[in-house]
Design goal:
By secondary structure, this protein is mainly α. About 80% of the residues lie in helices and about 0% in strands. The radius of gyration is 18 Å and the shape is globular. The protein starts with a helix and ends in a 7-residue tail after the last helix.
């Protein structure tokens, strides 16, 4: 895709996410291409995260601290994105959706690139107009939810944004339960807390 095509897709995603999702799904991207795109989006997200911390939070951080922060952030964001994709796929299928794992991955990876763009805008605003950052973050959160619902609706061929919202909510609950169980099983030992306490 050319830069002009990408910007047009960004604008379409904001103005008409359902049509944007249909165009993305029509590309029929391979699983290999999607994994590469996912990795690129996560790395870009992590770089911007570390950059913002370096510029505004941790001016005295050494290279090792920044490297550790980058690695941890990549693991968290990448792992969270993969878990979210799997949850949206499994929950959606159980609610009658017909989308494939590739379909869900396609729309969610594109959404991750949009988050990278929003994060880049946040870094710029922190330098020129910090007071607007909270407004941008809240607006991006609401817009992200709106886009995600329409993306899931198109990927699973529901024809019902309300049903897609149900997938989003149930997936979030399922992920929360899984994380809670994992923390119960492994969180104590990792933090040095005896298992029988």
């Amino acid at each position: 895709m050319s830069s002009a095509t990408l910007m047009n897709m960004v604008a379409l995603t904001v103005s008409n996410p359902s049509e944007a999702a249909r165009q993305l799904l029509a590309l029929k991207l391979s699983r290999e291409a999607l994994w590469i795109a996912l990795a690129l989006a996560v790395v870009l997200n992590a770089i911007l995260h570390v950059l913002s911390n370096t510029l505004f939070s941790f001016p005295d951080s050494d290279l090792q601290e920044l490297t550790d922060s980058l690695v941890v952030y990549v693991a968290i964001v990448g792992g969270g994105l993969v878990i979210s994709i799997a949850a949206f796929y499994q929950v959606g299928r159980r609610m009658g959706g017909t989308g494939s794992f590739n379909d869900i991955m396609t729309v969610m990876v594109w959404l991750q690139f949009l988050r990278v763009l929003a994060q880049a805008l946040t870094v710029v605003l922190l330098m020129v107009a910090p007071v607007l950052v909270a407004i941008l973050a809240f607006g991006a959160f609401l817009l992200g939810l709106y886009i995600t619902v329409h993306f899931l609706d198109q990927a699973h061929r529901f024809g019902s944004p309300l049903k897609a919202l149900g997938v989003l909510v149930l997936s979030a609950l399922a992920i929360a339960v899984i994380i809670s169980v994992l923390l119960t099983l492994f969180g104590g030992p990792m933090l040095g807390i005896p298992a029988n306490v």
